[in-house]
Specification:
The complex is a heterodimer of chains A (about 250) and B (about 230).
Chain A lengths: L1 E10 L2 E11 L4 E5 L6 H8 L7 E6 L2 E5 L7 H8 L2 E4 L11 H11 L5 H14 L15 H13 L5 E5 L7 H16 L3 E5 L3 H7 L2 E6 L2 E6 L1 H6 L4 H12 L3
Parallel strand pairs in A: 3-8, 3-9, 6-7, 7-8
Antiparallel strand pairs in A: 1-2, 1-4, 4-5, 9-10
Helix pairs in contact in A: 3-4, 3-5, 4-5, 5-6
Chain B lengths: L3 H49 L3 H16 L2 H11 L9 H27 L2 H9 L4 H31 L11 H12 L2 H30 L5
Helix pairs in contact in B: 1-2, 1-4, 1-7, 1-8, 2-4, 3-4, 4-6, 5-6, 6-8, 7-8
Classes of the chains: A alpha/beta (about 250), B mainly alpha (about 230).
Chain lengths: ~250, ~230
């Protein structure tokens, strides 16, 4: 579903990603972990071109893009690739001037040109799936963080993405609201959605991930099934990172 | 202060002048304000988008326009348009000349308000719009502008109320608007104090009514804000 080859990202002098090779199989959940500043969020944002890689190759759902520095992407390529992906943000980023329902309908109507009725049907089904059908007519500021994030997931799902990207989806939430969001994510994973998740929730990684990728200083240090990576890390840096997390009582 | 006879005369002048002043206010001051502001807003939006554009020449043209208009007095601009342009063969009637002058002014000042409002919309809103596959234009129209509009209503209303009062400058290029009518009455009655106060009261009345509408629009747009 996703193939990255020798992906680099530079911000001026800062070399954030230093040659990432990664492959994500259809229907699997990949969790990316790593210390802050390791480049994990940048890597995720490269997958839907919110950041444009400086160098390398990205292949996603049959769209292949080659990046070379100084070369501008065509807008149509960018849009086509983004339409294969959905993204869930750390700070939800719901549209504050629209109700929950309108948030989930917006992309369907504006981008996919679906009829209003069809968009509403689908939006209500998705809100039902994330347990918020009763809140459909509320504005984001009337919802709790956990509810907003579940609307965010429904909004991303409404575009029928091939891949769902999660950028620290629970980091901004009060601890007691984390569970409801993780539960929805776990259900999506069990339904066979292809997901790439940047998170600090190691319990979720153990429970839902097919593959865990540890990234540090812009390179993938180690990757594997959660059992292997958490119980028998091969690299010293991975061990140190996991120990530090352990000490922080995860 | 005033003799009985003088008071009588002043009251008479004020009541005689009231309807002509109000009539010119409604027939000229208000239309001049509304037309110039509407055209000015369109110009302001285009200018703001040009300044935010990644196309360099558009930045320069918009920046140059705002620089010229903000850096020179409105009165001088009106004189150039109405008294100056005829000498190179461009003659414009008083009312359209005033509309052009005020539109250019509104366009320049309000473009900065709109630009700031667009830039104040959190970056995450753009990203959310892009992440569901929107183009720049779709994101702007569906996500950014509606939010920027709410932020920009108070400063735009300010600029609108300034314009109501600034239209009195049109008197200097022979537009018969409310202030010019007050001047004409003064010329025949020699009672400047009361007539200009009367005009001031009418401007105050118009601005107050318009502020009331500003409040209503703001409350309407506040629905979705915590």
């Amino acid at each position: 579903m996703i193939q990255l080859h020798n992906l680099h990202k530079r911000f001026h002098d800062l070399h954030v990603l230093r040659g990432i090779d990664l492959s994500v199989e259809e229907g699997t959940t990949t969790v990316i972990i790593g210390p802050s500043g390791s480049g994990k969020t940048t890597l995720l944002r490269c997958l839907n071109l919110l950041e444009v890689p400086s160098e390398g190759t990205l292949e996603l759902a049959g769209h292949r893009l080659d990046f070379r520095s100084g070369q501008k992407l065509r807008q149509t390529d960018v849009i086509a690739l983004r339409q294969q992906t959905g993204m869930v943000f750390q700070s939800y980023n719901l549209f504050p001037h629209m109700t929950a329902l309108q948030n989930v309908m917006e992309g369907q109507i504006t981008v996919q040109k679906r009829s209003k009725d069809a968009a509403q049907d689908k939006a209500l089904k998705l809100l039902d799936k994330v347990g918020l059908r009763e809140r459909a007519d509320m504005y984001p500021h009337q919802l709790s963080g956990g509810q907003q994030q579940r609307v965010g997931i429904a909004r991303a799902m409404a575009m029928d993405p091939k891949v769902l990207l999660f950028d620290e989806p629970t980091s901004a939430l009060d601890p007691e609201l984390v569970g409801e969001v993780l539960k929805v994510m776990k259900e999506l994973a069990d339904d066979g959605m292809t997901m790439v998740v940047v998170t600090h929730e190691m319990a979720f990684a153990r429970d839902a991930a097919d593959r865990v990728v540890f990234i540090d200083q812009g390179v993938i240090v180690e990757q594997g099934p959660p059992g292997d990576l958490f119980e028998r890390p091969q690299q010293e840096r991975t061990r140190q990172f996991l120990n530090r997390l352990g000490g922080r009582s995860v | 202060m005033f003799t009985d006879e003088r008071s009588q005369r002043i009251l008479e002048i004020m009541s005689n002048a009231f309807w002509p002043l109000l009539k010119e206010g409604i027939e000229t001051t208000i239309p001049l304000t509304l037309i110039s502001f509407a055209l000015g807003l369109v110009l302001a939006m285009l200018t703001a988008l040009a300044r935010l554009s990644s196309i360099k020449p558009l930045n320069w043209i918009a920046g140059f326009y705002v620089w010229i208009i903000r850096g020179t007095p409105l009165l001088v601009q009106l004189f150039i348009i109405f008294y100056g342009l005829p000498s190179i063969g461009v003659t414009i009637d008083p009312f359209p000349a005033a509309v052009i002058g005020f539109t250019l002014s509104v366009g320049a000042y309000n473009s900065e308000i709109i630009r700031a409002a667009i830039q104040s919309t959190p970056k995450g809103q753009w990203e959310a719009a892009y992440s569901i596959g929107m183009t720049y234009r779709q994101a702007l129209r569906r996500v950014i502008i509606p939010q920027a509009t709410r932020v920009s209503i108070p400063p735009l209303s300010n600029s609108f109320i300034s314009l109501v009062k600034d239209t009195s400058l049109a008197a200097t290029i022979t537009v018969t608007e409310m202030f010019r009518v007050a001047q004409q009455w003064t010329a025949t009655t020699y009672e400047p104090l009361v007539l200009y106060i009367e005009a001031a009261v009418l401007y105050l009345f118009f601005s107050t009514v318009l502020s009331y509408f500003q409040g209503r629009i703001e409350r309407r747009l506040d629905r979705y804000v915590a």
